[in-house]
Recover the amino acids of this structure.
């Protein structure tokens, strides 16, 4: 059978055209298409995790900034994710991080201490310069860490991450659950999308009352459908001699010393930079 | 009944009822012989899917016996593995069957469960990939495949286990005309390679083209089991099972009626119909 091969090629994934699943789905799609897919997932994962650790351990705003800029550039330039998408990803944690940082800037005191004070019922919310500094530090550290995780998500497809976890001897049950969850997320999203389109076509979302009604019913149907489907899936697995352990053949990406050397080099450079900053006692502020 | 071919799978007086329901199969007996192309016809709920699950050992009949190549199945683990290896099911909804996160590991699921050496698994997967023309999709996650591609993967899944009989549960149900034609080609190829095929379908025209034997289910019983021409000639069977006669069957009958001295024969395909009309060799218009 030589059917819709042409359609399936060139990154235009036909089954995907209908799903508008937003962030996570696009993330998966860019990871599958990443230009760094030939790099061993071991290297990519250790690189991301080690940089993340460095970012936290360095405790320096300058290092955090450098790591986030570097990682995002790598996602765009080396991995081939569209710049606009990567920036939109970076706006997701902004609100979260900004609010946490605000909480750190202000201190609750009895007497005004800072350069800006807010008096409320006898107590005082003071923004101190020390608070401001630690908030800034936290902001860049958090952003650097998030960027490391984005790098991993945008360059390494889920099946390869799972393969690494399997080799690292994560408990089998966890890995198998992750496999199945990853597979069924897409099926459920697809069904959910079809149901909500059908509901929309009957004005299911016109007005808040209707929207709530539709939402609850779609959720209920999804649950019922998932139960039904799980039975059918189990039958199909048994039909292929499933005996309680998921076994798949997986091809390993070859470990290339060149890739390891490049990543190791970057890590060394950054570590050196961090040590230098600490020695000089310099930071952004 | 003719016994010139070797009997492969045979069911004797099989009865099966789902909990708290009317029996889905009542006293079903059938002998499937090597190399046959059987079309299983009948309404929804007539017992076709239950019949398939019984054939593969997923459901255990409450009464009756099943034997493969003369050996009775005793529902031990060994017997079941052997039966499921020899009798594969391609399920109607490929999404219920596909569980792995890449095409290649998906196809390996069956052979891996048979606990074959890795080399052997790789060879079987390579073979199935080649037969279903999936080379370009090997590392592709199933959620980015089209319906036709998923169908091919679900067939490759079963081929990799080297079965002697393949049961197809409504394989044309969700395929477009192009993919349906490709599926028919595939079925032809498999049949030529000596694999026994049992296909359940609502498409009587396809069944008429494809089958060497038609089995009709109605309310849990086999109401007809003969050559397609004999089955479709029997008005009472057609009525009871709620079937339709194939268009070509009716047309040929009308032509024979209109020109009784000139034409004869029971054409199964358009080509045979042209031959019957004596248009053989003349170009299509």
């Amino acid at each position: 059978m030589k059917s819709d091969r042409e359609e399936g090629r060139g990154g235009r994934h036909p089954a995907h055209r209908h799903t508008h699943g937003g962030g996570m789905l696009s993330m998966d799609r860019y990871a599958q298409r990443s230009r760094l897919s030939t790099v061993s997932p071991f290297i990519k994962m250790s690189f991301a995790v080690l940089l993340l650790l460095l970012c936290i351990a360095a405790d320096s705003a300058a290092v955090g900034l450098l790591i986030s800029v570097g990682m995002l550039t790598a996602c765009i330039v080396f991995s081939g994710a569209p710049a606009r998408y990567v920036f939109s990803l970076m706006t997701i944690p902004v609100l979260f991080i900004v609010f946490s940082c605000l909480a750190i800037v202000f201190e609750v005191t009895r007497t005004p201490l800072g350069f800006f004070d807010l008096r409320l019922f006898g107590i005082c919310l003071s923004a101190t310069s020390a608070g401001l500094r630690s908030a800034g530090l936290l902001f860049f550290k958090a952003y650097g860490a998030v960027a490391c995780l984005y790098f991993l998500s945008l360059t390494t497809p889920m099946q390869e991450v799972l393969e690494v976890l399997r080799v690292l001897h994560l408990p089998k049950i966890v890995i198998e659950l992750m496999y199945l969850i990853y597979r069924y997320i897409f099926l459920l999203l697809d069904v959910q999308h079809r149901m909500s389109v059908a509901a929309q076509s009957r004005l299911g979302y016109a007005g808040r009352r209707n929207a709530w009604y539709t939402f609850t019913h779609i959720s209920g149907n999804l649950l019922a459908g998932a139960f039904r489907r799980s039975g059918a899936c189990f039958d199909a697995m048994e039909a292929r001699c499933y005996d309680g352990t998921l076994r798949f053949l997986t091809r390993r990406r070859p470990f290339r010393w060149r890739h390891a050397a490049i990543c190791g080099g970057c890590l060394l450079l950054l570590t050196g930079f961090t040590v230098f900053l600490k020695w000089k006692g310099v930071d952004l502020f | 009944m003719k016994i010139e071919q070797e009997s492969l799978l045979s069911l004797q007086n099989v009865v099966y009822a789902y909990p708290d329901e009317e029996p889905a199969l009542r006293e079903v007996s059938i002998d499937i012989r090597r190399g046959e192309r059987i079309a299983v016809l009948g309404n929804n709920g007539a017992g076709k899917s239950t019949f398939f699950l019984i054939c593969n050992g997923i459901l255990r009949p409450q009464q009756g016996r099943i034997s493969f190549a003369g050996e009775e199945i005793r529902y031990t683990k060994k017997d079941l593995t052997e039966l499921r290896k020899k009798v594969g099911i391609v399920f109607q909804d490929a999404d219920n069957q596909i569980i792995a996160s890449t095409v290649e590991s998906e196809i390996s699921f069956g052979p891996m469960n048979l606990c074959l050496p890795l080399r052997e698994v790789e060879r079987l997967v390579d073979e199935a990939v080649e037969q279903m023309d999936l080379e370009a999709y090997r590392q592709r996650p199933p959620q980015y495949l089209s319906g036709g591609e998923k169908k091919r993967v679900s067939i490759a899944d079963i081929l990799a286990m080297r079965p002697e009989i393949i049961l197809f549960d409504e394989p044309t149900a969700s395929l477009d005309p192009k993919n349906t034609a490709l599926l028919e080609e595939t079925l032809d190829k498999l049949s030529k390679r000596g694999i026994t095929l049992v296909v359940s379908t609502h498409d009587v025209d396809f069944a008429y083209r494809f089958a060497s034997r038609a089995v009709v289910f109605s309310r849990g019983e086999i109401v007809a089991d003969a050559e397609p021409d004999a089955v479709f000639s029997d008005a009472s069977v057609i009525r009871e099972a709620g079937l339709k006669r194939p268009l070509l069957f009716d047309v040929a009958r009308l032509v024979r009626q209109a020109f009784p001295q000139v034409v004869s024969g029971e054409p199964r395909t358009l080509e045979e119909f042209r031959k019957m009309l004596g248009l053989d060799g003349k170009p299509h218009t």
